[in-house]
Amino acid sequence: MIEVILLERIERLGVMGQTVKVRPGYARNFLLPNKKALRATKANLELFEHQRAELEARNAAERAAAEVLAAKMGKLTLVIIRQASEMGQLFGSVTARDVVDAALEAGHQLTRLQVQIDMPIKALGLFPVKIKLHPEVTTTITVNVARSPEEARVQAEKGAAVKKAAAEKAEVEAAFGAPTEGTSGVEFSLVTEEPAAEAKKPAKKAKKADAAEGEEKEAPKAKKPVKRSKKADAE
User: Fold this and answer.
1) Would you say 41 and 21 are in contact if contact means Cβ atoms under 8 Å apart?
2) Torsion angle of C-alpha atoms 197, 200, 205, 210, degrees rounded to 10
């Protein structure tokens, strides 16, 4: 492990100015060549402290620009046309390069490092894809994978309908609470302590009734007459 000084925020690692320990390969192949960190030497520490104000000001300006771009891209949907089987499985997969090319056609310039595909896209449909515009700014766009522009339009309409229904359901649940099992629409049950107490009463009555029935069944056994033999009657 070697120590480096971060020149920007790195997810799950640290923030600007922080000294962290990383694997030599990670530092040599990613952090140092991409100017995201400096080796934690005495000279570099002094250099960073001398340039800290300038670096923080530049980072704040880049973050503000990224936030403006994120607001514009928040509702962006990119259509990617691919061949697929009858079951909707792609002959291949959608990669970060495909997303970059589609974004460029839509007027947005991205790099492959900014595109974060959590799960491989290997089927037709609508998929959320994260775009990291700045170390502290991330937005999510929609990738519409279809076999034709017409199919993409149909998928987009269905996706909009599903989102609208989900939003309406969320509003209803926020206003009235989540529905219980066996209910639909806006029918909801209010849970209080009184029904629980009333529910216990029938149980007690049922136990008493069972006990009474048991006594009735046992009573006739006690009243059965004892049979007397003919010999005893003759005596």
Assistant:
1) no
2) -170
Fold held by 2-68: Ribosomal Protein L9; domain 1 (3.40.5)
Tens of pLDDT along 2-54? 999 998 888 888 888 889 999 999 999 999 998 899 999 999 899 888 888 88
Pairing outcome for strands 77-81 and 137-146: parallel
13's tokens: 């690692």
For 83-106, the DSSP string reads -B-TTSEEEEEE-HHHHHHHHHHT
Sign of the alpha-carbon torsion through 196, 202, 203, 208: positive
Model confidence, pTM = 0.61
* Amino acid present at 133: L
CATH 3.10.430.100 fits 77-176, yes or no: yes
Domain ranges of the chain: 2-68, 77-176
